Amino acid sequence: MFENLMTSPQRNVLDALHQLEETRRKVLFVTDEDGQLLGTLTDGDVRRWILGGGDLGGQVGQVCNTSPYVVKAGEDRDVIKQAMQRLQITAAPVIDDQGRVIDAHFWETLCADEIESHQRTLQNLPVIVMAGGKGSRLAPFTNVLPKPLIPVGEKTAIEVILDSFVEYGVDQFYLSVNYKSKMIKAYFDELEPNYRVDYIYEDKPLGTGGSLCALNGKVSGDVIVTNCDVIIKADYHAMVEHHRREENDITVVVSMRSYDIPYGICDIVDNGQLCAMREKPHYDFMVNTGLYILRSSVISLIPENEFYHLTQLIDEVRSRGGRVGVYPISEKAWLDTGEWRQYCETISQIKSA
């Protein structure tokens, strides 16, 4: 129902980003207490605000589009469809004579054929899962099972990850494996999934990026690289669109994290004298989730058979004048299973979903 797309202009930006990702509609209708439309807020509006240095605690009224396309009740559907195509928007609020939101039209229902065709662009985009680590932070569990095969709900962690990409039409996966690799391969042999799984075998640990050199010249266009303990509940298609629109060589998917320190923080100068005190400060951070979109051409920069992290590749691309950008998602859209506390939180979130 469109009612869950309503939000207040006083709501903070981070909460609005959570709401956008939970509704999966990519738009919110900003209304006053009487339901009158004040504007629309898209995930693109929020990301531009964040990437421009805007405060996550800022208000929606500062960020939203105050002159959106609106529809009057009873307008012709073909006219609405043409307008939405021309404006490249995914939703249009329907208002009454008093300007109150009474309904909404969505691109996915007006233009089902076009949206299905559009989403198929991810079919030829391979996903590489870095699944070779020992998962020592999950010991003793990982003394028996490799980290990709730990249970997450009714499936293994790696199935949950791969299935999330399959929803977007991805059907080619590469698993970079080392620790207990035979167990991982045997599991997928028994599973017989309806997508293709190929393996990159590491004879020795090669870090978070070293094994990618095996794909140099074997993949083209863009590729997605993800850790095997990262579950992202966000729009992969929108991520790839952003990566291509910005003409990035690498796009790092980051999670917005906010921290409140419950103490007064003291700043001192070299001689130990207090120079400032900040009472219960608030900090906003962009945290690397472990999911990346890469132009396949940058894989050629990775040395063969050497321990190498993706952070080193990022530094190398930047030193050569390449473009490295970020794509922010909310904290709730990033589920981490890499250590026990985070794993337990992820299981709890999945059970309550």
Describe this protein with a few key phrases:
alpha/beta; 7-stranded mixed β-sheet; CBS-domain; 353 residues; 28% strand; 2 domains
User: What distance lies between the first and last C-alpha atoms, to the nearest angstrom?
Assistant: 18 Å
Q: Percent of residues in beta strands?
A: 25-35%
Report the C-alpha radius of gyration, rounded: 23 Å
Task: Name the overall outline.
Answer: globular
Task: Provide an overview of this structure.
The protein is an alpha/beta fold and 353 residues long. The protein has two domains: 2-110, CBS-domain; 121-352, Spore Coat Polysaccharide Biosynthesis Protein SpsA, Chain A. Helix content is 30%, strand content 28%. It is built from twelve helices and 19 strands. It has a seven-stranded mixed sheet with strand order 11-10-7-12-17-14-18, sandwiched between helices. The longest helix has 13 residues, at 340-352. The protein is globular, with a radius of gyration of 23 Å. Mean pLDDT is 87; it is low at 115-120.
